[in-house]
Description:
This protein is mainly alpha-helical. It is built from four helices and no strands.
Amino acid sequence: MSDHSDRDARLHRIAADPRYQALVRARGRLAWSLSLVMVVIFFGYMLLVAFAGKFLATPIGTMTTTIGIPIGLFVILSAIGLTAFYVRIANRRFDAETAALLRDHAA
Length: 107
C-alpha cells in the first residue's frame, strides 16, 4: 500500500514542478503548431483539387506526369517530415527534460 501512496506523492510533486508544467506547454505548443501546418497543407491541396482541377491536370513539360503528382507527393512527404521533426525534438529535448524531472524527484 505504501508503494502506491509513494508513487502518487511523486507524481503530484512532478506535476507541481514548474519545469514539468513548462515541458507540457512546450510539447503542446509544438504538437498543435505542427498539426496546424499539416492541416493547412492538406486542406490547401484539397482546395486545389476542388477549385483548380485543370491546373493540377496540367502536364509537366512534355511528360505525361501532371503537376498534381508532385504536389500530392509534397503533401505526403510534408507529413513524414513534420513527424520526423517532432520526433527529433522529442528525443533531444523532451526526453532529456523528462529524465531530469524523474531523476530530481526520485524517492
